[in-house]
């Protein structure tokens, strides 16, 4: 079994030989990475190798991709694969394809090569490390065949890095057992869903209650001293320390519709596993750990977004109890149907006393492409963006598409289109500012009628409230100018206003120390998505750690993914944070 000390002290030639087979027929990667020694951890080695590839020329990257064999291709049939590739394809069952599956893969290989000019690359052992099914492989092949060539080249390289990561684990005898447990918990929890096909778990539904019950059972198994569900459905686990104060941590367990398995839930599992390891070691910290599985963050069933964390900060709105869902069920009745009291007195009692807590930390999947594009497993969150959201409508005049001259039209949709393009330009002109029109509707639209009305949404976000407000003012001014020039009118209804939540400097530095201890480079980035941490920010100092998401960082989607290796690093980083925290 290889050791890191052996690798760090080997000659450059021996270093390359020791890593032979990690990257298919590409010794140049190890040759360039040798200069980066010594490596503090195997994770640091993985990042260094990936960086060599990222900094290589496009021709070198394409050469690396083309060095890989097709899945179930001619080389596999002829027995010409490397030992590593042979082992991986065998484990994925690609040597046991049915005639139909083999024919399908051959056609996909041909179509893919014709479109991109390089072979399809997939780490067939997958994010769990135990392998995709042949059905999964074919489905992924078909999906990626539709990708843009630049996107697909980048994805092939990321898959190659995952292949290399698994091969390095084998060389070093690394088993990410904590990450595997997290991954398995996520898979088991996803069984509880309102939809048989896609994960959906919205507030106070039977599936939602089942998830809470399962989390509580696992918390008890992990060794928490106190486990329960509070008046808004938050799952609370407390692991007592030797001191009176507590560190608050956690994330949400509700989901969007057609969700992924890791959004929110990863941030509950990480501290659960840290507590399990403390309990198994018979260890207590100078402070207690209070892990919260927040019952609602996504705002899917009710517009009372962040109702769970708002209850802890004392910001729960009484009017929320009278909100009705699409079926006419009020929040109060939904709570009671789920076994919760549904009373303001019970909810008000949940407010936390900030004097009893050290702060709030949250681990979360990034929900974006930045870490994935940089081949980095972890990132430090500098701020959670402030946001403003609107629903709006522009009103013009519906008239005949054939008889109304272009200069005499009052086209509502054209007005919104102009606003969208302005929003795109304006947001792109300032770093870390974004603007999105995510919903468009022409009511009763027809192919031969000029749109008389066009409804739209507007989502504005920035790392500071000042940048957000400036964007907001410019867009509203432009909307007014567009409608004045085009002879249109508009309405704009605010729906959400959330202030930015910059990370507390001391807690951010603790996350940075934890990532540095893993031998990983630091990458700081803002969070464009909202999180429970932005509500706890009103009560306690907070800071977040991001974990890389796979498949280009996609989230709020069934393709959302985290590898067991990245999950392991997040858990170890959390352990470092709590075990080096002095109070």
Q: β content, as a range?
A: 15-25%
Number of separate structural domains: 3
How many distinct beta strands?
Answer: 16
- Describe the main β-sheet briefly: 9 strands, mixed
- The CATH architecture of the largest domain comes to 3-Layer(aba) Sandwich
Tell me the helix content: 40-55%
Describe this structure in words.
The chain has 583 residues and is an alpha+beta fold. Helices cover 43% and strands 16% of the residues. The protein folds into three domains: 169 residues, Oxo-4-hydroxy-4-carboxy-5-ureidoimidazoline decarboxylase (UraD-like), CATH 1.10.3330.10; 284 residues, 3-Layer(aba) Sandwich (Aminopeptidase); 111 residues, Alpha-Beta Plaits. The strands form three sheets. Strands 1, 2, 3, 4, 5, 6, 14, 15 and 16 form a nine-stranded mixed sheet that branches. Strand 1 and strand 2 form a beta hairpin. Helix 3 crosses helix 4, helix 12 packs parallel to helix 13 and helix 20 crosses helix 22.
């Amino acid at each position: 079994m290889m050791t890191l000390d052996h690798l760090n002290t080997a000659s450059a030639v021996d270093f390359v030989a020791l890593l032979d087979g990690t990257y298919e027929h590409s010794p140049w990667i190890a040759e360039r990475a040798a200069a980066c020694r010594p490596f503090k951890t195997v994770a640091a080695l993985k990042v260094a190798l990936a960086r060599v590839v990222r900094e290589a020329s496009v021709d070198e990257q394409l050469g690396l991709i083309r060095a890989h064999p097709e899945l179930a291709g001619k080389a596999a049939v002829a027995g010409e694969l490397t030992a590593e590739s042979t082992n991986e394809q065998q484990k994925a069952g690609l040597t046991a394809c049915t005639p139909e599956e083999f024919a399908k893969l051959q056609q996909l290989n041909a179509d893919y090569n014709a479109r991109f000019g390089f072979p399809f690359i997939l780490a067939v052992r997958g994010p769990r490390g135990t392998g995709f099914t042949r059905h999964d492989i074919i489905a992924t092949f078909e999906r990626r065949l539709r990708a843009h060539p630049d996107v697909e080249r980048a994805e092939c390289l990321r898959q190659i890095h995952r292949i290399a990561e698994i091969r390095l684990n084998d060389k070093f005898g690394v088993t990410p057992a904590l990450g595997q447990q997290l991954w398995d918990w996520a898979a088991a929890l996803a069984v509880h869903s309102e939809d048989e096909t896609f994960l959906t778990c919205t507030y106070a539904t039977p599936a939602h209650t089942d998830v809470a019950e399962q989390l509580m059972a696992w918390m008890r198994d992990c060794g928490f001293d106190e486990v329960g569900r509070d008046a808004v459905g938050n799952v609370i686990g407390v692991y007592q320390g030797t001191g009176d104060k507590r560190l608050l941590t956690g994330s949400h367990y509700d989901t969007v519709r057609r969700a992924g398995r890791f959004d929110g839930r990863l941030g509950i599992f990480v501290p659960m596993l840290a507590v399990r390891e403390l309990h198994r070691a018979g260890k207590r910290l100078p402070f207690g750990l209070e892990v919260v599985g927040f019952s609602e963050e996504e705002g899917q069933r009710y517009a009372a977004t962040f109702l769970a964390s708002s209850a802890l900060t004392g910001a729960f709105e009484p009017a929320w109890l009278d909100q009705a869902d699409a079926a006419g069920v009020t929040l109060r009745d939904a709570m009671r149907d789920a076994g919760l009291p549904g009373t303001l007195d019970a909810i008000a009692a949940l407010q936390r006393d900030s004097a009893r807590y050290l702060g709030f930390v949250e681990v979360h999947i990034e929900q974006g492409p930045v870490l994935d594009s940089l081949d980095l497993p972890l990132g430090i969150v500098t701020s959670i963006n402030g946001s403003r959201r609107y629903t709006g409508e522009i009103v013009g005049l519906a008239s005949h598409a054939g008889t109304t001259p272009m200069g005499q039209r009052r086209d509502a949709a054209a007005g919104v289109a102009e606003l969208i393009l302005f929003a795109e330009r304006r947001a792109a002109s300032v770093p870390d500012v974004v603007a999105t029109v995510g919903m468009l509707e022409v009511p009763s639209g027809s192919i031969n009628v000029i749109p008389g009305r066009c409804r739209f949404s507007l989502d504005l976000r920035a790392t500071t409230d000042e940048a957000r407000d400036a964007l907001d003012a410019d867009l509203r001014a432009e909307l007014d100018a567009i409608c004045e020039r085009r002879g249109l009118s508009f309405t704009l209804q605010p729906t959400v206003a959330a202030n930015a939540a910059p990370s507390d400097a001391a807690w951010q530095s603790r996350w940075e120390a934890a990532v540095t201890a893993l031998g990983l480079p630091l990458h700081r980035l803002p969070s464009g998505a909202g999180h429970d941490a932005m509500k706890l920010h009103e009560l306690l100092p907070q800071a977040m750690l991001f974990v890389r998401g796979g498949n280009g960082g996609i989230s709020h989607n069934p393709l959302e993914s985290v590898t067991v290796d990245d999950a392991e690093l997040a858990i170890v980083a959390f352990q470092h944070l709590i075990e080096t925290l002095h109070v």
